[in-house]
Amino acid sequence: SxxxxxxxxxxxxxxxxxxxxxxxxxxxKLRWAQDKERLYVTIAVECASDRSxxxxxxxxxxxxxxxxxxLHKTDFELREPIKPSASHCKQQRGEEVCILQKAHPHYFDKxxxxxxxxxxxxxxxxxxxxxxxxxxxxxxxxxxxxxIMLPGTVELVDKTVKEGKVAFVHAYLPxxxxxxxxxxxxxxxxxxxxxNQTNNVFIYIDAREDKAAAKRYNITCVPECFFVISRNxxxxxxxxxxxxxxDIANAIKAHLPPALSKVSTDSEVNHFIEENAVSVLxxxxxxxxxxxxxxxxxxxxxxxxxTLRGKASFMYTDKKLLGxxxxxxxVWVNGSNPQTAALGSDSTALAKQVIGLSWGLELFNxxxxxxxxxxxxxxxxxxVYPGTKSEDLEMFKEVAKELSGKIxxxxxxxxxxxxxxxxxxxxDKFPAFGIAESFDAKAKRYAxxxxxxxxxxxxxxxxxxxxGKLEPSYKSxxxxxxxxxxxxxxxxxxxxxxxxxxxxxxxxxxxxLLLYKPWSNDNQKVLTIFDKVAAALEKVEGxxxxxxxxxxxxxxxxxxxxxxYSSEPAVFLCKAGSKPTQFAGALTQKDLFKFLxxxxxxxxxxxxxxxKPKLQEIKAAEEEKKxxxxxxxxxxxxxxxxxxxxxxxxxxxxxxxxxxxxxxxGLIKQIISPGSxxxxxxKGDLVKxxxxxxxxDGSKFDSSRDRGDPFSFTIGQxxxxxxxxxxxxxxxxxxxxxLTCTAENAYGDRGAGEKIPPGATLRFDVELIDFGxxxxxxx
Length: 779
Hints:
Layout: H1 2-12, E1 20-22, E2 30-34, E3 38-43, E4 47-53, E5 59-66, E6 71-77, E7 82-92, E8 95-102, E9 121-123, E10 150-151, H2 154-162, E11 166-172, H3 182-192, E12 200-206, H4 211-216, E13 226-230, E14 237-240, H5 245-253, E15 260-262, H6 266-275, E16 278-283, H7 296-307, E17 313-317, E18 328-333, E19 336-342, H8 347-358, E20 363-365, H9 368-377, E21 381-385, H10 390-402, E22 408-411, E23 432-436, E24 445-447, H11 455-466, E25 490-491, H12 494-498, H13 500-508, E26 510-516, H14 523-536, E27 543-549, E28 570-574, E29 581-582, H15 589-599, H16 601-653, E30 657-658, E31 667-673, E32 686-695, E33 700-703, H17 704-707, E34 711-714, H18 722-727, E35 736-741, E36 762-772
Helix pairs in contact: 3-5, 7-8, 15-16
């Protein structure tokens, strides 16, 4: 393919190299290839003995004694990490082929960065599997001038900080698109803040090139996106990168000033309050023998200030300002309503207290900003769906005031009811109420499942939550009704797994359970395979198959350890009293049967007498079904051929009427049967018609007759192709005609879908059923 050729050309031009040490004069040539999950490294050496494979996460290590009597050793640093435990080497046709499992499935741009012996490493096109990763290697930063953004390393970061500057750092894996959207926000902040021409230096680091950065900042390909801010004498601040470009840029700007500013006079305090929406004054104790900044209260206040960047602005003093005694703090919201509280040495508790005194005073409407505020300090969030009754809304407001500072209350619109499913609640029943520990997908949620929404009951529910006396609720579909039909795949939901019913099921039979997401590429294929396996096991007592949609149901990650971000399906064999066994083979009918025969006694015992005969029966039924389908297709083909001949004959013999506005032969009508009356549709009329559309070779691409559903449209409004808009204006009620439309009057050079190619001339067998200026339902 063109894409494959472009990829090969690109890869062939890359720096491909390795450091190979040998004891003899000969240097083994190396070849490499890859697919998305594996690397293939071939060493041109025939090993006789002493084979040693010692790959580590970031090094390729192989040695052996060759048939020439020499020790051959291959040792080089890999550009990106692998999984050593899942990698191996094997002898094949007089060479050593090493298969390395990538730590992160994606296409490498280089195998290694060692440039010393470039000439011995070449692409192995016989093993190479191409794939276009859709721009994953594009780098938004490289096109920027260095006055805006610097490419760098951790050494550059440390040097910048020692010079007294603030370093804003984005260390990332260029191939990982999880957080690619955050780059534009980082760039916007750099441009708006003067780039590297000020005291602020913006640095991007390719974590593949700088392994020290990858380790220091713990860079992996996950959706938790972040930047790092480094200052001299302070620990690195990690800033979560979320929201729009504006949100990201504003969050970076909030990190410009120190997290905790010192004030010494009442006027400085008042000016600070005027400049900030939420202001916090921390009065720390200082002594003759110790600094105020050495106190545990100061350390806690600084950490809390870093946590609440962009949400609250902190200042500190070691004096008594505005009457605030040391050991206390005061919070202002928009310069008013000051509230005073005692300081503590727990930064998390302090941050929660500040948010409680500023943001948590009432029932707020839900916004992403408020969501981030409460999540940043770990304040639990009450999800309030008050419904339409004003008295319910007022009741929730009273509860919010009574529990302010302990639980944050957010009011959600009914259009945001999709969040209710995470509580295991029905999405269209209001009022509704629940408490979440946070907005994190893994956070525990607690649903209020009563029907009586009173202030007393809601407060009691909240207090039981705060006391840790509630059991969590989980996302779950409704438990299917009725008994499971043998030979079919059981529909499993979270509530089935969580309740004793699952124990009852697995006590009677082993269950091969499929966990899947409906948007997986192989979803339909895997579900079909499961249907076939279930059908084959219909007569086997003691085993069945089930499926769980993880997008709609919670699951226990300890019992089913799968990657929550992956859409790949996973299969487990569930047995009573033991941890589920994960299936590790290919998701094929053959491999699933092998797995079951090995792990389920019922399948092994019934294989010859029950399973094989059923498989033969299913195969025979499928062959019969295929035969009938082929016969039906042949009959349909013959019918279409007959219809084509009739249309060809009609097209050749019936009078041709040019009904196109241009009169250039691009729209020809030939009457099959005349209609009645003298009137024809007028522009703006609603037309109801049957049609069958074909290409000139007779291939049918659409037919309302096949569906038994006439098509309606308003004529002359551009709702249909020009051919129809013009031709139906000439037809009478009941008239049936053959329309031949050139591409200019149909779908032009673009075509339509898979069945109508670009530039196609189309034929329509149309029948005008009715028309008029009535409502569509009346036609």
